[in-house]
Amino acid sequence: MSTTIARSLLRTRHASARLMSTGASQRTALYELHKAHGAKFGPFAGWDMPLVYADQGALDSHLHTRKHASIFDVSHMLQTRIVGKDRHRFLEHLVVADLKELPVGGATLSLFTNSNGGIEDDTIITQQRDSLYVVSNAGCADKDLAHLLKHVKIFQDQGADVEVLKIDDHSLIALQGPMSQKALERLVGVDLSQMPFMTGQVMDIKGVPCHVARSGYTGEDGFELSIPTGEAVSITQALLENPHVKLAGLGARDSLRLEAGLCLYGSDIDSTTTPIEANLVWTIGKRRRAEGGFIGADVILEQIANKGGARRRVGLVIEGAPARAHAKVLSAEGEEIGEITSGVPAPSLGKNIAMAYVKKGFNKKDTALKVQVRNRVQDATVVKMPFVPAGYHKV
Amino acid sequence: MALRILSKSFLSQRLATPIRHYATKKYTSSHEWIEINKDVATIGITDYAQNALGDVVYVEVPEVGARVEFDETVGVVESVKSTSDIYSPLTGEITAANSDVVKNTKLINRSPEKDGWLFKVKFEDQEEVNALLDEADYKKLTESDH
């Protein structure tokens, strides 16, 4: 929603705060295409992004993605490439992944950490033959790039052979949903049934070399396509020729990812949450847990060893009215023990779901808790995530 | 013959007369419509509001019999992404609340200004009514809001 509408509309209390704009907005290569499809735009991380399109509301778009396929324009995200002989050693200083063990073509979710053991961003890193391909959040683009450039200079000054390159000439779009494989196969002319989830490779889409990763942010099978910007519109239009494929905006994107139990940086994880608190210790490679060598490793490894950290991220199902970010979480006895970080009435479930941080000890599955919504206290239960079973492709 | 013609023209004359609306429709800057009928006002959110909100998934309406003050929060309309409080534009007593809309939230998107009505207030202060926006002013507001 535009800032004006959000301000005056029923004095809306909880349109996502992230939609409030500051300063001049950037536009992706697909802006006119979105407009042509009747997109309603909203500001996000300094970009004018489509929230929803004329043909269907956010709810139907969400459901369409789980049943058919949707295209999300995610060109606002930061794409970088790290090259040079010492690229693994360099990037391992900044992230928790085991980059030496990651096979060529393999992709992994990882975390940029800070010296307090907190998380500066989450990211997907793909091992390419001579480089590392890194995709991170639009909301952290400036911060991440500055962080990479600051540290690469330190490494270079010490004689390391490594460079950080910002990818400015490719647009990123995400094709997500059970019909994604069929939709993409038509344009690549290759059988994709043997392409595993969390792998990436360069492939010709309609004759144009693109980086194709089998990954996404919806819990469904899907692909993230890094396309030379000049071809982004034509390839998107070609995909849309398939009647099962529809454009989808940020509205559906958020409800899909929350149902899939995926964190949103800035809401569910931030610079104060440690991997153990965020329940993301699995992203830290075994060798990294033994050796450390990443920023904040001392704090993080100590927390892992001593089961430290005061809080834990959990999934909740809540009775009654939907609970949103910042709603208080109470124990069954009514003691305040935590806070919701993301909450949504889940379109695929017909239930209210949320992520929250609660005091350690209240995080076991099936724990009965309460959530404060306006002037009422509603029952809630801790559940394991994902809330909706994943549809990831199995080879 | 003359009688029939007379009846016919009389009938068509009656049908041609526009039916007078004894209800007045007013608006608030927070996109609520208020239909006044004697001393009872029916209130809901406008088409403009439901369009901006998107699919409505949850609704709370006030209790029948409750006393409400001007600008008091009396309910809520929620979409997947947002929560919008509903404020009473008038002081008085809640005489009815739409339970259909609570069960079938899609009514608000489909028929926001008719079947999607939220509640009725028996109001006390004509000044509060006079302060509400008329249709022309509300239209101006929505046109400038882009």
UniProtKB/TrEMBL annotation, chain A:
It comes from the Eukaryota. This is Uncharacterized protein. The lineage of its organism: Eukaryota, Fungi, Fungi incertae sedis, Zoopagomycota, Kickxellomycotina.
Automatic annotation (TrEMBL), chain B:
PROSITE patterns: BIOTINYL_LIPOYL (PS50968), LIPOYL (PS00189). InterPro entries: 2-oxoA_DH_lipoyl-BS, Biotin_lipoyl, GCV_H, GCV_H/Fam206, GCV_H_sub, Single_hybrid_motif. Its cofactor is (R)-lipoate. Coiled coil: none annotated. Residues 40-122 form the Lipoyl-binding domain. GO terms for cellular component: glycine cleavage complex; mitochondrion. It comes from the Eukaryota. HAMAP family: GcvH. The H protein shuttles the methylamine group of glycine from the P protein to the T protein. This is Glycine cleavage system H protein. It comes from Coemansia aciculifera. The gene is GCV3.
